[in-house]
TrEMBL record, chain A:
Belongs to the ELP6 family. This is Elongator complex protein 6. It holds the Pfam family ELP6. It comes from Salix dunnii. Pathway: tRNA modification; 5-methoxycarbonylmethyl-2-thiouridine-tRNA biosynthesis. GO terms for biological process: tRNA wobble uridine modification. GO terms for cellular component: elongator holoenzyme complex. It comes from the Eukaryota. InterPro entries: ELP6, P-loop_NTPase.
From TrEMBL, chain B:
Belongs to the ELP4 family. This is Elongator complex protein 4. It comes from Salix dunnii. InterPro entries: Elongator_complex_protein_4, P-loop_NTPase. Residues 99-121, 340-360 are annotated as: Disordered. It is found in: Cytoplasm; Nucleus. It holds the Pfam family PAXNEB. GO terms for cellular component: cytoplasm; elongator holoenzyme complex; transcription elongation factor complex. Residues 108-121 have a biased composition (Basic and acidic residues). Pathway: tRNA modification; 5-methoxycarbonylmethyl-2-thiouridine-tRNA biosynthesis. It comes from the Eukaryota. Keywords: Cytoplasm, Nucleus, tRNA processing.
Length: 261, 360
């Protein structure tokens, strides 16, 4: 039922046209935000969308670096999706990286050990899934900049990890959805880390505040850049979309600038 | 009119019924969060109730003025008055000496007079015939909130017995080679307040002053400090405590400064006003009473995805009678007779600080 109510974000991501195969399958999605406007809500939307889509095989592996499960559980419950129940069904795996992981402390100063074991954990989880779920896995990372902090600044280790995860997308058709903060890198001279990540990305979502400041009924604007969208019939050339949004407890309103009365 | 009166009173009764089973210093907030007071009644109001339990508050200092200390002192005093344990870390050699400068809650007599003051002040804004209802309203609120948040008199030092006991833990970060010692102190401190649902036997406050200041050796260990903040934040999430960190943003590289800001649940910045800025003085009413500006950049979003949009993000810090901290929306000097505060604010703050979005 909820799939019928398409919003602009779903359309821009191509989620409306087919649910099988899952349109984001094999894609890497990067969400960027800044201090003024948080992009977390896009992550919540995609999480809900993935878990409540028509195909019952979709599985989510969530690597939480910034918030505990209780936070996400409350938000997603308001969106109409029970994470605890999904976890019991074996469709949602929550890896709490807040406390569990400080790789450099565990494995000396390398930082790599932690991420490697994390990767193995992900792969074990995928291997343990039933056969027809294996190709419908979504890996979500809720804050990539905190991964860098966990790796003690060695962004190469984070990049390695991302490359490993990227192989999963090409081998098994997993999708990878990550959130990062854009404004951290804008002041750097050569943001090699960010450029490398962007090279992997198929879909790019950017949340920004309005140029005129915050307003009560427009919380910011989203720019969606979809590189892999061309093959879908119909609106094929429409690769960049830009619209405003307003975040509510149980939904997010998307609208084109100036179309709200 | 009678109807209004009863509605008001029943409303206040509800509040006390909800907060009654808790500790005096804790108030229920939305989405299963709990608030503790910042020690400044106006700041509590601005943030929608106070600091959420389990959140990390960061204050960006003005490099040239100690305005962040005003917020820090009131935060610490509020905790001590409510008998909450405190961990205080600072780059000073003897952090315990700082406790002598904490403000004392004003006595009831002072409070009365202050109440009276605000009544009179507010009274100017509303039609005189409603005045008596309005003042009654204020009194009600004061009564129910008395325990949650005190007014602090900056000129009276806190009585010694509040901080002489075991409840205050002081750490000097001046000579520590890395944040590990501070981290361990925080961890042992927070271990006293594990969070188990609905059971508030105790809650604690952590105040870290000028983390990363040049006088401590930590200032060139960016990643170490970042991972300290990260792990402090994750410890806070599972503890009944609130932490404030103040830091000088100008001493960090821009990209690290952004990283710090992203870590914060509540992000504030303070700024002194330049002396005798004639232009600004003409623009803003009450300029001569102001000591600085407070900017609210980020408000905690725990258990919810909805951002809280404030009408204004810049507030003036005033010292009423040189005793009490008062935060007010900026008001542009009346030109056209319209009272729109948000309009005035955005105009005012673009004149004074970089965060202004509109440039008039």
């Amino acid at each position: 039922m909820e799939n019928r109510a398409l919003n602009l974000l779903d359309e821009a991501l191509g989620l409306g046209y087919q649910t099988d195969p899952w349109p984001l399958r094999g894609k890497v999605v990067l969400i960027e935000d800044c201090v003024e406007t948080s992009g977390c809500f896009v992550l919540h939307q995609l999480l809900k969308r993935t878990l409540s889509s028509q195909s019952p095989n979709n599985t989510v592996i969530f690597l939480a670096f910034s918030h505990p499960l209780s936070h996400y559980d409350r938000i997603l419950r308001k969106l109409g999706c029970n994470l605890v129940a999904q976890r019991e069904n074996g469709r949602f795996f929550f890896f709490d990286m807040l406390k569990l992981l400080c790789p450099d402390e565990k494995e000396g100063r390398t930082g790599k050990g932690g991420f490697i074991s994390l990767y193995w954990k992900i792969q074990d989880t995928i291997c343990a899934l039933p056969e027809n779920n294996k190709n419908h896995v979504t890996i979500m990372i809720d804050d990539m900049s905190l991964m860098e902090v966990a790796a003690h600044g060695s962004s190469d280790h984070v990049l390695d990890f991302m490359h490993y995860c990227h192989t999963l997308t090409s081998e098994l058709g997993c999708s990878l959805i990550t959130l990062n903060h854009e404004d951290i890198y804008t002041s750097m001279e050569r943001p090699a880390f960010m450029l490398q990540i962007k090279y992997l990305v198929d879909v790019f979502i950017k949340a920004e505040p309005l140029a005129t400041g915050l307003a009560a009924d427009v919380h910011g604007q989203l720019t969606v850049l979809n590189w892999g969208f061309c093959n879908v019939k119909g609106s094929s050339n429409n690769k960049i979309t830009n619209f405003h949004f307003k975040v509510k407890e149980n939904s997010v309103e998307y609208f084109y600038p100036g179309t709200r009365t | 009119m009678a109807a209004t009166k009863t509605r008001i009173s029943s409303f206040s009764r509800n509040i006390s019924a909800v907060s009654a089973p808790q500790l005096p210093g804790i108030k229920c907030g939305p989405n299963g969060t709990f608030f503790v007071s910042s020690g400044i009644p106006d700041l509590d109001k601005i943030l929608g109730g106070g600091f959420a339990l389990g959140s990390l508050v960061m204050i960006m200092e003005d490099a040239e003025a100690p305005h962040h200390m005003l917020l820090l002192r009131n935060f610490m005093s509020q905790g001590l008055v409510q008998n909450q344990p405190l961990l205080y870390a600072s780059p000073a050699k003897d952090p315990r000496g700082f406790l002598g400068t904490l403000p004392c809650p004003s006595s009831s007599k002072d409070e009365k007079s202050r109440n009276h003051d605000t009544e009179q002040e507010k009274g100017l804004r509303i039609a005189w015939q409603y005045k008596k209802y309005f003042s009654e309203n204020i009194d009600d609120h004061k009564d129910s909130k008395q325990e949650f948040c005190n007014d602090f008199d900056l000129r009276k030092p806190l009585e010694r017995h509040f901080y002489s006991g075991q409840r205050v833990d002081c750490v000097s970060i001046k000579d520590s080679p890395n944040p590990a010692t501070l981290h361990d102190r925080c961890a042992t401190f927070l271990a006293q307040f594990p969070r188990n649902d609905g059971n508030f036997s105790c809650m604690g406050r952590i105040a870290i002053q000028s983390l990363c200041a040049p006088q401590c050796e930590l200032s060139n260990m960016d990643w170490d400090i970042l991972s300290f903040i990260r792990s402090l934040k994750s410890m806070l999430r599972s503890a009944n405590a609130v932490a404030i960190i103040t830091f000088p943003p100008s001493l960090l590289s821009p990209s690290f400064c952004k990283r710090w800001q992203h870590m914060a649940d509540v992000l504030l910045s303070v700024k002194a006003i330049p002396d005798e800025d004639k232009e600004l003085g003409k623009l803003l009413t009450g300029y001569q009473d102001m000591v600085g500006f407070l900017n609210v950049h980020k408000i905690a979003r725990i258990n919810t995805q909805v951002p809280m949009i404030l009408e204004a993000t810049t507030f003036s810090i005033k010292l009423q009678k040189r005793r009490f901290i008062v935060l007010e929306c900026l008001n542009q000097a009346p030109i056209d007779g319209s009272s729109g505060t948000s309009y005035g604010t955005s105009g005012g703050c673009s004149g004074s600080s970089k965060s202004g979005a509109l440039d008039f």
